[in-house]
């Protein structure tokens, strides 16, 4: 007799069926129930959600029409229905499912035996692993790509474990060191880099600068001496990294053979030293020869002038007078060439020191004109100076400034036909505070393509007119060098058949106004 407070026992089997039904309906995994031949008897809603097939389309069809598997794996699933122990761990089988939209999914399958109303069945659980497979494939592709890059790099890429044994040795390393990777991997780093980066007590790779242990450290560069298989020691540049892997470290290095680079640098240094030595020898030779050259030339010029002026009596044969003039002109011309060469050599050797004074520009130009006045008169060329009455002074080496003007005026006289003119103007420069001296002629002009060339030593532009003119081509080059000593600039503007203008531009700090002149030291005023 039941107590009035007693309750009926619940239907445990019914509850289990309800729970199982709810689990199947809500499961994210696709579930198929088939008979022992693989015909689908039931599929849960996840089959439709995941792969797009309604249950009514699949029921009654073979599960293997949806799931692509090798024959042996199909057999494993079918045999699972005959297994006697439903508690056993199901084997994971990899397969593919083509969805209703044609998308291929990678899946894991697990098959379990199922008994329903005494009838043996098979329950197949299907898990979509496409994302995982995709990541794995991308990782494998990335590793393959990285492996190809490592193998294809011309530099040596090597790696060691914490004990200093080699774990990586690419093709570049094989070529550089002379070992095959198969014979060197597993051996000590000391075969390649003796005593490199090793703790003197343990012999293991050092902590490479005490870098942080919890992350990949940035590479740092180091110069090393490496050893080839044939015993040759060569200089190398190594970029070294310490990389943490799990609870240990690996050491990696990118090694570049710099022996050829160092050899080239040594050759360049030797060539530079030889060139400097040759330049010093040239300067010394020219300095020593200057006295030897100038002494006889001064005698030739002096006696030629003395004879031409007929101090000891009249020269009767007119032809002798002509010869004496030729000797005097040739001597003066040769002395000018010698002086130009010596001055240019001294500038190149850095042996010219500026003696700066406050220079009266107009007076300096007029003084320079006197040196070319005779040649200008012979060709009926006018020499003019156009300056402003309030022209400032110029802080410069007066002798060198005159030499620049003489060289430019001499060039202008040479290349200006008879009846032409040469004008020196002083104007403001292009930048604020600058001052420019412009020497213009009405000569033959220079082609645009020759402007850069004529300013080089011993260069002249070619024309039928210039072939009749004597000269070394040093005038413009020497003028440029002397302007650079003053931190100034020399530029050329020219037009064929019209004439040439050479612009000498001095910086603002060399322009001396009236008030500034009073502040200059007394020695700077002496030539003003």
Please mark out the parts with pLDDT under 50 across 5 or more consecutive residues, or reply none.
Answer: 1-7, 9-16, 207-219, 463-468, 522-528
Which percent range describes the beta-strand content?
Answer: 15-25%
How many domains would you count in the coordinates?
4
SS element count, helices: 15
Mind explaining what this structure looks like?
The protein is α+β, with helices and mostly antiparallel strands and 528 residues long. The protein has four domains: 12-133, PAS domain (Beta-Lactamase); 153-257, Beta-Lactamase, CATH 3.30.450; 276-348; 356-525, Histidine kinase-like ATPase, C-terminal domain (Heat Shock Protein 90). It is 38% helix and 24% strand. The chain is built from 15 helices and 19 strands. The chain has helices at residues 12-26, 45-51, 55-58, 71-79, 130-152, 171-177, 181-184, 259-308, 318-348, 361-369, 373-378, 398-414, 451-454, 475-485, 514-519, and strands spanning 30-34, 40-43, 67-68, 93-98, 104-116, 119-128, 156-160, 166-169, 220-227, 233-245, 248-257, 356-359, 382-386, 393-397, 421-428, 435-441, 489-495, 499-506, 511-512. The chain has a six-stranded antiparallel beta sheet. A five-stranded antiparallel beta sheet has the order 8-7-11-10-9. A five-stranded mixed beta sheet has the order 13-15-16-18-17. Strand 10 and strand 11 (248-257) form a beta hairpin. Helix 12 runs antiparallel to helix 14 (475-485). The protein is elongated, with a radius of gyration of 49 Å. Residues 1-7, 9-16, 207-219, 463-468 and 522-528 have low confidence and may be disordered.
């Amino acid at each position: 007799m039941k107590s009035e407070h007693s309750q009926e026992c619940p239907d445990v089997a019914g509850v289990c069926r309800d729970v199982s039904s709810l689990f199947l309906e809500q499961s994210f995994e696709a579930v198929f129930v088939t008979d022992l031949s693989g015909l689908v008897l039931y599929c849960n809603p996840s089959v439709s959600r995941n792969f797009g097939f309604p249950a009514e389309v699949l029921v009654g069809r073979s599960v293997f029409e949806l799931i692509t598997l090798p024959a042996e794996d199909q057999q494993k699933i079918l045999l699972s229905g005959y297994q006697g122990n439903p508690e056993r761990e199901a084997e994971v089988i990899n397969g593919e499912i083509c969805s209703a939209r044609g998308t291929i999914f990678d899946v894991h399958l697990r098959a379990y035996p199922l008994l329903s109303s005494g009838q043996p069945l098979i329950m197949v659980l299907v898990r979509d692993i496409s994302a995982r497979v995709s990541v794995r494939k991308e990782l494998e592709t990335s590793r393959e790509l990285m492996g190809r890059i490592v193998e294809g790099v011309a530099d040596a890429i090597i790696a060691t474990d914490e004990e200093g044994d080699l774990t990586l040795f690419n093709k570049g390393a094989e070529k550089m060191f002379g070992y095959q990777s198969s014979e060197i991997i597993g051996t000590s780093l000391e075969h390649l880099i003796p005593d490199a980066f090793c703790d003197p007590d343990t012999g293991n790779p050092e902590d490479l600068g005490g870098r942080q242990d919890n992350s990949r450290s940035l590479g740092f560069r180091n110069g090393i001496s490496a050893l080839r298989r044939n015993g040759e020691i060569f200089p190398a540049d190594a970029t070294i990294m310490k990389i943490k892997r799990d609870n240990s470290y690996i050491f990696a290095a990118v090694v570049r053979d710099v022996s050829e680079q160092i050899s080239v640098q040594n050759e360049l240094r030797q060539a530079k030293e030889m060139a400097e030595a040759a330049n010093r020898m040239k300067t010394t030779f020219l300095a020593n020869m200057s006295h030897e050259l100038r002494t006889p030339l001064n005698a030739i010029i002096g006696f030629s002038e003395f004879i031409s002026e007929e101090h000891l009596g009249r020269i009767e044969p007119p032809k002798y007078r002509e010869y004496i003039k030729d000797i005097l002109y040739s001597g003066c011309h040769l002395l000018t060439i010698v002086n130009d060469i010596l001055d240019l050599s001294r500038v190149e050797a850095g042996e010219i020191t500026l003696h700066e004074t406050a220079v009266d520009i107009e007076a300096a130009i007029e003084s320079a004109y006197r040196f070319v006045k005779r040649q200008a008169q012979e060709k009926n060329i006018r020499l003019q100076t156009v300056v402003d009455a309030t022209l400032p002074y110029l802080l410069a080496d007066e002798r060198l400034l005159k030499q620049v003007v003489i060289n430019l005026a001499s060039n202008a006289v040479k290349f200006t036909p008879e009846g032409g003119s040469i004008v020196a103007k002083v104007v403001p420069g292009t930048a604020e505070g600058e001052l420019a001296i412009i020497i213009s002629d009405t000569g033959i002009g220079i082609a645009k393509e020759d402007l850069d060339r004529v300013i080089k030593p011993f260069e002249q532009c070619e024309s039928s007119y210039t072939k009749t003119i004597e000269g070394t081509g040093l005038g413009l080059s020497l003028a440029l060098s002397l302007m650079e000593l003053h931190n100034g600039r020399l530029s050329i503007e020219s037009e064929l058949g019209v004439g040439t203008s050479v612009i000498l531009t001095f910086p603002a700090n060399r322009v001396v106004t009236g008030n500034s002149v009073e502040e200059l030291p007394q020695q700077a005023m002496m030539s003003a």
